[in-house]
Amino acid sequence: MDSGQALFDKLWQDYINRLCPSAHQVHALLEEGQPLINDHIALRTFGLPKVGLEVLARPFLALGYQQKGDYTFEAKKLNACHFEHPDPLMPKVFISELMVEQCSPALQAIVHKLVTQVDASSLTGSDFLHQGRLWDIDSATYQALAEESEYASWVAAHGYGANHFTVSVNQLKAHDHCQSVNQKLRDNGFAINEAGGEVKGDASVYLEQSSTMADRVPVVFPDGTQTIPGGFYEFAKRYVLPNGELYQGFVAASADKIFESTH
């Protein structure tokens, strides 16, 4: 099992090489002489016992992470939890899963067929978290999933890897708020997720968030390569609670719109 930092390094390498190559440019634009602090990463999966949220959480729990908040996104048919490490410098981890049983019989059949291909022994340890697809899928099946659930099609096409990393805006001297970060990125050619407004949340919920729209990346299917939405970069500003501590949770209404960065 990797150490915490080693695991995040491998997740980062997979993310910048396969899912979000523009992350290099985000760093070049925002870094202020020291590495950016990563507020959290997010992982996606199918809500089936073999590959569900609990399976993805296992390596993080082994590293000392603790489950904190849990969230439901009814319209998107998603269930999620976030995990925190006792060391505040370690990134939070947000894991979501598609509640497959709430989807159409057609989608359920496709997802069960994909998950049946997974060798359970490949899910031990933590390497699978950044190894991409553990099943074969053709482009027609990907498109069929996308018609019902963008989330399902994303997981089916990309498999396992960080859906996003997150810049802690609190660290930045040049930017007090997500709005300022958005403008800097816009000025340099990035598209910003405007679902629910370009900044989700504010000081009243102790968290504001924004994100780029996902990079379009090549994905190889048996019947050819397609360019589809991959990973994106998020930006989070956290506010101090009445007890004097920095808010560490997530806001479901905001997270719901951040999911749409891969649309």
Describe this structure in words.
With 263 residues, the protein is an alpha/beta fold. The protein has one domain (4-262): Roll (2,3-Dihydroxybiphenyl 1,2-Dioxygenase, domain 1). The protein has eight helices and nine strands. Strands 1-4-3-2 form a four-stranded mixed sheet, with helices on both faces. The chain has a three-stranded mixed sheet with strand order 5-9-6, with helices on both faces. Helix 5 (139-148) runs antiparallel to helix 6. The longest helix has 16 residues, at 4-19. 41% of the residues are buried.
Main features:
22% strand, four-stranded mixed beta sheet, alpha/beta, 263 residues, 2,3-Dihydroxybiphenyl 1,2-Dioxygenase, domain 1, 8 helices
- What about the largest sheet? 4 strands, mixed
Q: What is the annotated CATH architecture?
A: Roll
Tell me the total number of β-strands: 9
CATH classification class:
Alpha Beta
Q: Secondary-structure element sequence?
A: HHEHEEEHHHEHEEEEH
CATH topology: 2,3-Dihydroxybiphenyl 1,2-Dioxygenase, domain 1
Total tally of structural domains: 1
Report low-confidence residues grouped into runs of 5 or more.
none
Strand content: 15-25%
Using the CA coordinates, give the radius of gyration. 18 Å
Secondary-structure-based class equals: alpha/beta
Distance between the terminal alpha carbons, to the nearest Å? 34 Å
Q: What percentage of residues falls in helices of 4 or more residues?
A: 25-40%
Family: Belongs to the 2-oxoadipate dioxygenase/decarboxylase family.
InterPro entries: HGLS
Pfam family, one: HGLS
Keywords: Aminotransferase, Dioxygenase, Iron, Oxidoreductase, Transferase
